[in-house]
Write a structure and sequence with these properties.
425 residues; alpha+beta; six-stranded mixed sheet; four-stranded mixed sheet; 19 strands; globular
Length: 425
């Protein structure tokens, strides 16, 4: 039996059967090609952003990663791991650095199930991304079992000899038309076999077949011992619909959010096709925007008001919505500063450094509608800019747009320097 592979690529890298930086076998390429073609039929916009299929001489067909990062687990067990393309002015991030930065950013996503993990654990960072996500789930379960599994009354259906509860007449006719001595009934029973525990056990059983790292496999086996008397879920959708988190069950919330991801092949940003893939994929534009907004909120002095994605204004009456990523206000000095994030790579060799006209039109509209002459466009630093960190553009009516390059290898320090320069000027 051929051992499943993990192929690691970076944003915008290409994959081919032969030649190029990343070569894979024909079977794996065909799996990915099938995925792309289905996405184009069912989720065209996601297909454009995620993976593209084209041809290039002399390699033939190639697949190019776009601006989604994370991991794809294909039906064969093969995995594609996509890391963000991160540079500073002098070098690219290592694999461990890219994972660390990605995990640090993911914590600030509103719907990301785990918030309290340490992204600096070196042994964890050596794992493939999918194994890291499994580990995060297992860490939530360790907390859960320490606090205790919860029992409850739950509805049970069974074919019994002693009548109790309520008769299920349709099932009685189906199963006991001949066996008059039996009763197909629905009744309440008290115990651990409630929907929440069934879903967690089903998740552990699924991951026991998917996990490859020894520490994860060992921990799954240990945790399953706590669920020995609990049945796996027979109807996952029904159990998710019927589960309820009472006041004494808040410690279940994060684990069940992860269970939904793993059992329903759902994603914080999901692909829902028929290819049978387990995906955990995230748009870097959204990750960057969320992380920068969160950090600037934490770093800005208390005499400044910071708002994210509000207030909403319109370019015309109730048409063409305007919603800057971040607004800083100092009412005493009457300063309104607008910051917008763009996960795009600028290039000093391109006209206007590669900044799109539409982005500049957007910034100019912000300046006019929000009555601000201080506009900041935040881009990730690349190794093509050796010393320049800010590019200024000034209009003839005194609107100034500062295109600022953020060093994502030391992103917290870079953002703190920006906040200090803005608020102290």
């Amino acid at each position: 039996m051929i051992k499943p592979q993990t192929i690691q690529i970076i944003e915008y890298d290409t994959i081919a059967v032969s030649g190029g930086k990343h070569s894979i076998n024909k079977e794996m390429f065909k799996e990915l090609e099938t995925l792309i073609l289905e996405m184009q039929e069912t989720q065209h916009n996601l297909a454009i952003d995620f993976l593209s299929l084209s041809a290039k001489k002399p390699m033939g067909k190639i697949i190019r990663a776009k601006n989604y990062v994370g991991v794809l687990q294909l039906p064969s067990g093969n995995q594609i791991q996509i890391l963000p393309k991160i540079h500073n002015a002098s070098r690219a991030a290592s694999e461990e650095e890219s994972k660390q930065i990605l995990m640090k950013m993911l914590k600030t996503l509103r719907d990301f199930p785990s918030k309290t993990f340490s992204e600096t654990n070196l042994s964890t960072l050596k794992m493939p991304l999918f194994e890291i996500f499994i580990k995060l789930y297992l860490q939530e379960l360790i907390v859960l079992v320490k606090k205790g599994l919860q029992s409850a009354y739950y509805e049970t259906e069974d074919n019994v000899r002693i009548f109790k509860g309520k008769m299920n007449f349709s099932m009685q006719l189906q199963h006991n038309f001949i066996h008059k001595e039996r009763f197909y009934v629905v009744y309440d029973e008290f115990g651990l076999n409630r929907p929440e525990n069934r879903l967690i056990k089903s998740t552990l059983l699924k991951l026991s077949h998917m996990a490859r790292h020894d520490s994860n496999k060992k921990e799954i086996k240990r945790l399953l011992s706590y669920f020995e008397v609990i049945e796996p879920s027979k109807n996952i959708d029904k159990d998710f619909q019927s589960h309820r988190l009472e006041r004494n069950m808040t410690h279940y919330k994060k684990a069940l959010n992860w269970s939904r991801v793993f059992l329903k092949n759902q994603n914080i940003t999901s692909f829902t096709g028929n290819v049978g893939i387990q995906s955990l994929l995230f748009p870097m534009e959204q990750i960057f925007e969320n992380y920068v907004g969160y950090q600037i909120q934490q770093m800005t002095p208390s005499n400044w008001e910071v708002t994210l994605q509000k207030p909403v204004k319109f370019l015309f009456e109730e048409q063409f919505k305007l919603k800057p990523d971040i607004i800083l206000r100092d009412s005493e000095k009457k300063r309104h500063i607008i910051l917008d994030t763009k996960w795009k790579r600028l290039n000093p060799k391109l006209e206007n450094y590669g900044i799109s006209q539409s982005d500049m039109y957007q910034m100019y509209a912000y300046a006019k509608k929000y009555k601000s002459n201080e506009i900041y466009l935040l881009y990730p630093m690349t190794d093509q800019f050796h010393s320049k960190k800010c590019i200024d553009f000034k209009s003839d009516d005194d609107v100034v747009v500062h295109a600022v390059l953020i060093d994502c290898l030391t992103i917290e320090e870079s953002l703190q320097d920006l906040v200090n320069s803005i608020t102290r000027s």
